[in-house]
């Protein structure tokens, strides 16, 4: 069995530098916000397996604290319905703080008013649960590609 030498380096921007056998690559940092532990674990596992650097928290209050301490997360994936602070309320507060984070909201039910509010606040995507993981990965990949070539939305 061959040994792979790797090193994770701090990188300024929304990515983590990863050096594998002397080859430099970048992993986009993604914050997952969901009160369901199994959902957080699954999303982290899938995103990490696809070359991203996910971190997960259980509610919007914790998410804002993580983003305050480490503003390099560019993509936030949040459940709409959560105790303490909903995904919509998280999005609203991020926009009040003039945050540039791209937000993807997911929910098993979204009312017309919630959809309208989310769109007016600049949500990047609304995913209906259950969704195909490929749909989420395509959405995230599109955002990651925009950031890697310097396109702002």
Describe this structure in a few short sentences.
The protein is an alpha/beta fold and 153 residues long. 38% of the residues lie in helices and 27% in strands. A hairpin with a 2-residue loop joins strand 2 and strand 3 (23-33).
Structural features:
disordered N terminus, globular, 5 helices, 7 strands, 153 residues, seven-stranded mixed sheet, disordered C terminus, 27% strand, alpha/beta
Overall description:
By secondary structure, the protein is α/β, with parallel strands linked by helices. Helices cover 38% and strands 27% of the residues. Strands 1, 2, 3, 4, 5, 6 and 7 form a 7-stranded mixed beta sheet that branches. Helix 2 (60-69) runs parallel beside helix 3.
Protein topology:
Layout: E1 6-9, E2 15-20, E3 23-33, H1 37-49, E4 53-57, H2 60-69, E5 75-79, H3 87-96, E6 102-107, H4 112-120, E7 125-128, H5 133-148
Parallel strand pairs: 3-4, 3-5, 5-6, 6-7
Antiparallel strand pairs: 1-2, 2-3
Helix pairs in contact: 2-3
Mean pLDDT across every amino acid position: 83
User: Separation of termini?
Assistant: 45 Å
Number of strands: 7
Given as residue ranges, the uncertain stretches (5+ residues, pLDDT < 50) are 1-25, 149-153
- Indicate the structural class: alpha/beta
- H-E order: EEEHEHEHEHEH
Rg to the nearest angstrom?
16 Å
Instruction: Provide the helix percentage.
Output: 25-40%
Q: Main β-sheet, in a few words?
A: 7 strands, mixed
